[in-house]
Amino acid sequence: MKMEKQKMDYSTLSARVSRIVEEKEPEIFNSHVFQNYGYRLSYAMNEARQEVRREIVEVYIEFYNDNGLEDSIAESLFRNYSTEEERNTPINEEGDVYCKDLDLTVNPGKAYEKAMENERFLNAQHIADDFGLGKEKSNAAGTKYVKQKFRDEVRNINTLRDNYTDLKEYDALNSSIGKEVAKEWFDKLMAYGRGFKHWWIFDAKYFTEAEEVAKEAKLGQEMADQAKKEKPGFFLSKIFTPIRRGFIL
After folding, report:
1. What is the mean pLDDT of the chain?
2. Local structure of 216: helix, strand or coil
């Protein structure tokens, strides 16, 4: 009875690469970096001779294929060791591209689709950007990535600002995730503005930004008007607040 091939895990990948480096590049293998740091595999890839690097690549490809990470062959290996010209020069009608340094051929379009299928949206966005697949594909992957991480991350003023800015860049403020992030970002800005007012610090910038968000994301005129209504006037924001801050400090 034929035994089923066992999938390669990361420890096996590391062990196999280490054996290659020990045999073919003993100076690298015995170096302080290779022996003591977690990024030994990438260090070996960067420092080894071309023929050794190509041998290491074969192990990486086996690992990626075993674990359903085929898109990483393009996103990680090809992308990091090819030239911009190689990434953007198809060698056939199917759209394959070739990296001379690694003697490696990939199909960026198929890698992108595989990454999207496996919900590896950041990988998909990197592939779209670096292989010239177009802004539409990049934006689609980027939008899905924001939606993916938005569910689990801590939603503070920094993460909300970053997500809103990214979705605006991806022309995705009208999407369902765009509306959700925009509404939460608007509420956070209003809360900050009101919080400062509680301490008699009338900082208009939070309300100004909230008004802009309401208009940009088309959250409704009522929300834009609310931000405008609560925004402090010139005297409170430009004259009284600096004096008040001085007393607090």
Report:
1. 88
2. helix
Residue with tokens 């990024």: 39
Q: Looking at the structure, do residues 193 and 245 belong to the same domain, yes or no?
A: yes
CA distance 192 to 180: 19
The model's pLDDT over 75-132, given as tens digits with 9 standing for 90+, comes to 999 998 999 999 999 999 999 999 999 999 999 999 999 999 999 999 999 999 999 9
Please state, as a whole number, how many other Cβ atoms lie within 10 Å of the Cβ of residue 117: 11
Q: Helix, strand or coil for residue 45?
A: helix
- The Cα–Cα gap between 241 and 245 comes to 6
Look up the pTM and report it. 0.82
Q: CA-CA distance, 249 to 240, in Å (whole number)?
A: 14
Q: The domain containing residue 50 runs over which residues? A: 8-67
Pair 167, 141: CB distance under 8 Å = no
Number of other CB atoms surrounding residue 238 within 10 Å: 12
Residue 64 is encoded by which pair of tokens? 């990626």
The β-bridge partners of 49 are none
- 145 domain-assigned: no
Orientation angle between helical segments 40-47 and 10-24, nearest 10 degrees: 40
**Longest CA pairwise span in the chain (Å):** 86
Q: pLDDT tens, 151-177?
A: 888 888 899 999 999 999 999 999 999
Q: Is 22 helix (H, G, I), strand (E, B) or coil?
A: helix
Backbone angles phi, psi at 105, to 5 degrees: -115, 135
The reported pLDDT for the residue numbered 244 is 45
State how many domains the chain has.
Answer: 3
- Give the position of tokens 């690298």: 28
